[in-house]
Amino acid sequence: MKLRQYQRAIDESNIVSKTDINGVITFVNDEFCKISGYTKEELIGSPHSIVRHPDVPAENFKRLWETILNKKIHKGLIKNKTKDGRAIYLNTTIIPILDDDNNIEEFVAIRHDVTEMIELNERLTRTQNDLKDLNSLLWQKVSGKTKKLLELNRELEERVALEVAKNEEKTRLMFQQSRLANMGEMLANISHQWRQPLNELSINLYKLKQSAIEPSKQFMEVYEHSKAVIKGMSSIIDNFRNFFTSNGDDEKFSIKEAIDDATLMLENTFKNESIELNIDIEDDFSIIGRKNELAQVFINLFSNSKDAFLQNNIANRVVNVKAYVQNDTNKQIKYAIITIADNAGGVETSLIENLFDPYFTTKHPSVGTGLGLYITRRIVSKLQGQISVINSNGGACFEIKIPLSGDDDE
């Protein structure tokens, strides 16, 4: 009873047909007759090709028959035709029915009409194509009439972008000048605070010498070294005080002397921290500028290496300084090239771009202020030079390039 109800439910809601193994129709339900336009009498006994649409390639039906004759279920969209020649689209499932000996007895086909959906999609596609064609035509017309307007608009955008960039640059310069003014005031205060204790040290050192009745050779060596260190620190204070002003005159000086002055300042520090300093100067050559400022550059770079050794716990600590002359044949200029390289671990690649910015530091706040490399670049720029940094051989390598004075070109 229930099976009969299930069959009725399927029969009432689907398009159902049966064919024998040769494709001859043996049964159709009312829905099949309704959609095809044929009567049962016209359909039963006829080959199923009676409803085949001529547009469908024969290859499609060949694959269909190969599937069901292999006792497999076929599922797919099939295009058929009605008695009056109208095309219909059916989602079709064809099931082989087997007898007790596992041979094909007949085929049952269950279909759903999706003609409206297919036709709607086709109309939608045609409409979309028509809209594309219309838009293309309109664009050609608009493009031809508004070409000049577009060019004017582009020029206006470029001008606005240029003005925005100029204003941003002005704002950046004003901000930088404000920071530099604060920096100059801070350095002036530092210089003032340092000057008094240095003067007292110098006086006490002189009194100590005067009080020595017969100073030994070792005493005099310590005295001269201490005096040189105090003089160097005093020079650094002058650099701090004069750095943001135009005080002082440029002069011709030896790069070797500037390196020696910096070495003298940090000699004991490097010795105490077991840092090996190797200096290789191919020829002594001179530049125009202020020797104490360039010495400050080397002091800053040496100090950075020392801090990196300590921060990264490097055991074998080496700083190599090399200076040589490089010819630029295109510009007919000679440059002094100075490299300061260490093996202290280098700098993170992502940080190199900002390394020379003011207040930017990779050190702990208690160690670095972020001004050393900024001041270093400023000094090198005043010498018409350039400074850059790369990571090499397990450390940082700074390269300074400064044009030589005229006498050294001879």
Automatic annotation (TrEMBL):
Domain PAS: 2-45
Keyword Nucleotidyltransferase among record annotations: no
Domain PAC per the UniProt entry, residue ranges: 71-126
Class of this enzyme: transferase
Keyword list, A-Z: Kinase, Transferase
GO molecular function, one term: phosphorelay sensor kinase activity
Keyword Kinase: yes
Domain (Histidine kinase) ranges: 189-406
Alphabetized NCBIfam families for the sequence: sensory_box (TIGR00229)
Protein name, as recorded: histidine kinase
